[in-house]
Amino acid sequence: MSDLPHRAVTRSAKLATLPLGFAGRTALGLGRRLGGASAEIVAQEIQQRTAEQIFKVLGELKGGAMKLGQALSIFEAALPPEIAGPYRATLTKLQDAAPPLPAAAVHRVLAEQLGEDWRENFVEFADRPTAAASIGQVHRAIWHDGRVVAVKIQYPGAGKALISDFNQLSRLGKLFGALLPGLDIKPVLNELKERVAEELDYFKEAEAQHAFAQEFRNDPDFFVPDVIAANEQVLVTEWMTGTPLSKIITDGTKEERDRAGLQLVRFLFCSPARVGLLHADPHPGNFRVMEDGRLGVLDFGAVNRLPDGYPRVFGTLTRIFNQGDMETVVQGLRAEGFIRPHIEVDVDALRGFLAPYVEPTRVEEFTFSRDWLRQQAATVADLRPNNVVRHLNLPASYVLIHRVHAAGVGVLCQLGATARFRDEVVRWVPGFADDPGDPEDTPLAVA
Question: Distances in Å between the alpha carbon of 49 and those of 5, 40, 175?
Fold first, then answer.
């Protein structure tokens, strides 16, 4: 991992460039104003340069900084492409080309975690990883009873690096406030920090994956490989074969892409009701289309615990939005913390911003496409002071739900999937199709 800034001193120094750079740009802005430039133009330039440096630095780091950048993708969509483009490219490079640990380091981790006789657990063990990600990598092996297994190994020091990132980022609240005045960044960071602590604990990941595997055993639509063994930094699960979803995106027939898109939506919406958990990292690398047509699902390190199922308010406000009652929608968004008390928003701009998220629920059948996504992003792709995105907040309890929605829509647009997505919302999201006379769905209850 020598090409990534993973030493604590290096990471801290890189993060420290953010507030220093912001101070310099603020001074530059004062100079421009004294020179006669308008306050609005100067403010926009400062915001743009601040955004550029934020995303540049976050994109250069793995771990907590990268995860914060992913959580803030809703705001990244509001940035000009010349700022957000290099950031997205850096993230993609980090996610797709994480440098693997050398075999000697892998053996050392296995000896520390499983004992010096760790090889006795395996008939075979492939030293070359089949996949590498932000905090660990996966090896193919044959378990001592003859089963083919996936062995997930956590990078040494990954936990300390992640926690260090969040401790550093928590000091930058004012910086994000200057860029996005409606955002309270500290609860977002605290929520991400808690979730990352869970993601680092392979015992918790094993518990979540086993719950999914048990619920979906013999399911006609989904397969989740069950857990065979686990400790804090090594996770052994059943091996799963199938065509990566990324391959379906590039080479699949229209029928295959439509089916995969519908299965993805069904899996994400039904899981809270069936398992009490939401898979919170739905990128193509975590899904396989199996020979029997089922969608195989991997990587349960990031899950949102929803023991009561999907939040009812989400379905209720979506239905009310479709009915055109924006006053109640704004009231509900305030109650949930998406609009902070001191913030006023333009209702028409808010309607335009929310429309893409709601549009697929209005019609019996919907087609996601890259062109559609680009058109939606264009409606918010500026940093003008009245841009509604800059005045919205991301409540801590919705951090992972937002990640799922944003990533899920992106995957559906890559697939170009056409299907009856609304049916899945009707079936699985409480409040969306309920009788408006239900006392739990009154505007008072929403607020």
Answer: 23, 14, 12
The 3-state secondary structure of 181-201 reads: CCCCHHHHHHHHHHHHHHHHC
Of 88, 75, 86, the C-alpha closest to 380 is: 75
Cα 280 to Cα 166: distance, rounded to the nearest angstrom:
19
Lowest mean pLDDT among 68-72, 200-204, 404-408: 68-72
Q: Which of 20-34, 37-51, 352-366, 405-419 has the lowest mean pLDDT?
A: 20-34
Q: Tokens 């050398």 belong to which residue? A: 102
207/211 Cα distance (integer angstroms): 6
What's the pLDDT tens digit per position in 213-251? 999 999 999 999 999 999 888 999 999 999 999 899 999
Place of tokens 């133009």: 41
Nearest in space to 383 (alpha carbons), one of 138, 41, 48: 48
Cβ count within 10 A of residue 108: 13
For 316-335, how does the pLDDT look when each residue is reduced to its tens digit (9 = 90+)? 999 999 999 999 999 999 99
Task: Give DSSP secondary structure letters for 374-443.
Answer: HHHHHTT----TT-GGGG----GGGHHHHHHHHHHHHHHHHHT-EE-HHHHHHHHSTTSSS-TT-GGGSH
Region of poorest pLDDT, from 66-75, 299-308, 401-410: 66-75
Is 155:138 a contact under the CB 8 Å cutoff?
no
Q: Please state, in angstroms and as integers, the Cα–Cα distance from residue 50 to each residue in 3, 40, 106, 168, following that order.
A: 25, 15, 40, 17
Return the closest-CA partner of residue 50 out of 17, 73, 72, 74: 17
Token pair, residue 238, equals 């059943």
State both tokens at 215: 């619920």
